[in-house]
Amino acid sequence: MTTSTTALDARTIEIVKSTVPVLAEHGEAITKRFYEMMFMNHPELLNVFNHANQKQGKQPRALANTVYAAAQYIENLEAIIPVVKQIAHKHRSLEIKAEQYPIVGKHLLLAIKDVLGEAATDEIIDAWGKAYGVIADVFIQVEKEMYEEAAALNGGWNGFREFVIDKKVIESDVITSFYLKAKDGEAISSFVPGQYISVRCKIEGEQYTHIRQYSLSDAPGKDYYRISVKREEGAEHIPGGVASNFLHEHIQVGDVIEVTAPAGDFVLDVNSNEPVVLISGGVGLTPMISMLNMIAEKQPERKVTFIHAAINGNTHAMHEHVKEVAGANENVNYFVCYEKPTEEDRLKGEFDKESFVDKEWLKSVVGENIDGTFYFCGPVPFMKSVNQSLRDLGIPTEKVHFEFFGPADQLN
């Protein structure tokens, strides 16, 4: 696609770019205030946003980072199209609509004025208003194309579609899989391994609906979707997962849930036959299982190194399945790292490393696949460590792909 800032005059561009450092300094305060004001005036939007991410400050950080990037490249928005597309996938999955963008723009400007006070002159507010309009148009255009593509696929759809829980399988002490079949019995669209769906939960006693995005954890081409959900217990200062606990405790076989079509740009290159290294921590294994299963079914000659890190065997989901795949495919190598193995784990001897995944161990188990493509997903500290290890090993950036569960943080 092409983007244009012809609607912005030189003075507007100059003001926007010159005020980026100010927004960077006050960015989180501005976006926090933005959400407060917007939800106060439009509480219906609480049906869309993740409340836990709001409370933990993740969503304001994500928005702030997006605004800075767009402002810095206001003269060349083509440069941030990859970031726009990543966010647009999430927006399409959440059913964000074009008419919601003016609401966001209005409250973002109000928040800038509220936080910066007299420093936010009328000229600055006017410039940012014009810039937001251009940026919003880019998102709207990209998302429009995504809505059209999702609906045009065989078995595709827009909006929320009802699915029936066909099976519910406990995978570990903390992870349970749900097999979803379309209630209408019609075809469901395929997807690319690594993609996710949004699930809308209507929970008794909750004023607003909760929408969560879960990676699809099986290969495409089935008559069902599978998601594997970690129950988020919560801890001090961190609320438990409302949606994940609801799914674990209340959703049973035969129940109906609402789902949007698959989305996401963290995907396996299914047209390549080069070696892949799949590295996961905790529930981050869900997109990796989808990738592994697809390769085993469709590309059995493709070399795969599957590395998984878990606390111990009790929290390790789908271990037997991956062992079975590796045993049946000589091109699949499987390695396990446990942070705190139990005595039973030690007796079984089914893990390869104790403690954490590090550079030296990665290099030793990846071997000849060091020239392949790397995919990783897991908790943020895990991902930061893996990312740094891959850098230290000299893996080119274009060979490294990762997925965040929730608003993207910086890995550096």
Overview of the structural elements:
The two termini are 30 Å apart. The chain has three domains: 143 residues, Globin-like, CATH 1.10.490; 99 residues, Translation factors (Elongation Factor Tu (Ef-tu), domain 3, Beta Barrel); 128 residues, Nucleotide-binding domain of ferredoxin-NADP reductase (FNR) module (Rossmann fold). The strands form two sheets. The protein has a six-stranded antiparallel sheet with strand order 4-3-6-1-2-5, sandwiched between helices. A six-stranded parallel sheet has the order 10-9-8-7-11-12, with helices on both faces. It is built from twelve helices and twelve strands. Helix 1 crosses helix 5, helix 1 packs across helix 6 and helix 4 packs across helix 6. 42% of the residues lie in helices and 17% in strands. The longest helix has 32 residues. It is of the alpha/beta class and 412 residues long. The chain is globular, with a radius of gyration of 22 Å. The model has no long low-confidence stretch (mean pLDDT 91).
Can you give me a brief rundown of this structure?
The chain is of the alpha/beta class and 412 residues long. The protein has three domains: 10-152, Globins (Globin-like, Orthogonal Bundle); 161-259, Translation factors (Elongation Factor Tu (Ef-tu), domain 3); 276-403, Rossmann fold. The chain contains twelve helices and twelve strands.
